[in-house]
Design a protein that fits this description.
By secondary structure, this protein is α/β, with parallel strands linked by helices. It is built from 11 helices and 12 strands. The chain is 38% helix and 19% strand.
Length: 354
């Protein structure tokens, strides 16, 4: 079977980590009956340079017309001074909204081999960490009405019950396949949108009698994540809170260079990208960690392409590469030998079962 993949390398380290990920995918899918047909598109800063806008029409059309989108990263210093409608980040927002990807799934997994990279004291992470942040992705402050005057500005956090309901179902379904515990994070002591959020979360949880739902204010959640991260399994939260908490969750697992993400909608089309950004400071040096993107490709096989078997094969190979001591600079201890972006991909390829 052939599946169409829209590949959007983007800026900074994006093209490097995507290039290595495609090598891993090619190897993992050979003899699998699945053939991936890649079409490359521009988005972000490179699209501003070449086409005059961050998200060219053909990129959005190509993404819509694909079975899945694999994205590297967008943005960089070079485009920082541009007016707000010309920022590279707009490409991401346009893809999320344009493809209806309302659910962002960000698993934060602390691999035993990388425990020493975790900035928390070892007693807090003993036995490992395995948290999934489910972030609402197309509502809230990111997409609400906003305006800027000479001396004032505002953004609005608006949610409809339907927007909360659909992300609540994603969280409950995710939790059903895990520990059946959901922590919904909001600021219901202050925000009206959070009071609606809490009400709808509670209603939806009622449809899943096996699920234990609890609510936590976002400031407390930020504290609890570093005080006692093991209390969390599935966290569900609105767009901006999820942006912040997913970076925090990423860091406590050792390196943001390790974390994949999936952005999902109502159907099977999804967009897969590493949680890290374009890291212009290390771009072009061949030292970026490609594992977050490789693991994002595994999520793509699982959620959009229906190939759990190949997803697992890739995830196992990543684990074995780490067990075997493969370390890019970001996850290495001071005295450990480091390898390049492409050597890391080769290490993973070496452990694939094909
Ligand atoms: C993320 C990023 C984006 C976001 C930026 C680059 C627009 O931080 O995916 O978490 O804020 O959503
Ligand atoms: Mg972010």
């Amino acid at each position: 079977m052939e599946k169409r993949i829209a590949v959007i390398p983007g800026d900074g380290i994006g093209p490097e980590v995507i290039g290595e990920t495609l090598r891993v995918l090619d190897c993992a899918t050979q003899n699998s009956g699945l053939k991936l047909a890649y079409t490359h598109y521009l988005a972000g800063g490179c699209a501003i340079d070449e086409k005059g806008c961050p998200l060219p029409d053909e990129t959005l059309a190509g993404a819509k017309n694909s079975d899945a989108v694999l994205l590297g990263a967008v943005g960089g210093w070079k485009w920082d001074a541009l007016p707000s409608d010309m920022r590279p980040e707009n490409a991401l927002l346009g893809l999320r909204a344009g493809l209806g990807l309302f659910a962002n799934v960000r698993p934060a997994l602390l691999y035993g081999e990388l425990a020493s990279a975790c900035p928390l004291k070892p007693s807090l992470t003993e036995g490992g960490l395995d948290i999934v942040v489910i972030r609402e992705l197309t509502g809230g402050l990111y997409f609400g009405k906003k305006e800027r005057g000479e001396t004032w500005a505002y953004d609005t956090m608006r949610y409809s019950d339907e927007e909360v309901r659909r992300i609540a179902h994603v969280a409950m379904k995710t939790a059903m396949g895990r520990k059946k515990q959901v922590v919904s994070v909001d600021k219901a002591n202050i925000l009206e949108s959070s009071r609606l959020w809490r009400k709808v979360m509670t209603e939806v949880a009622g449809e899943y009698p096996e699920i234990t739902l609890s609510h936590m204010y976002v400031d407390n959640a930020a504290m609890q994540l570093v005080r006692n991260p093991k209390q969390f399994d599935v966290i569900v939260t609105e767009n901006m809170f999820g942006d912040i908490l997913s970076d925090e969750a990423a860091m406590i697992t050792g390196s943001i260079g390790m974390l994949p993400s999936a952005s999902l909608g109502a159907g099977t089309l999804g967009m897969y990208e590493p949680v890290h950004g374009s890291a212009p400071d290390i771009a072009g040096q061949g030292i970026a960690n490609p594992l977050a993107t490789i693991l994002s490709a595994a999520m793509m096989l699982r959620y959009s392409l229906g190939r759990e078997d190949i997803a697992k094969n890739i995830e196992n190979a990543v684990r074995k590469a780490l067990e075997n001591g493969a370390r890019t600079k970001d996850i290495a201890l001071a005295d450990e030998k480091t390898i390049s972006t492409s050597q890391m991909a080769e290490a993973v390829i070496g452990f694939l079962e094909v």
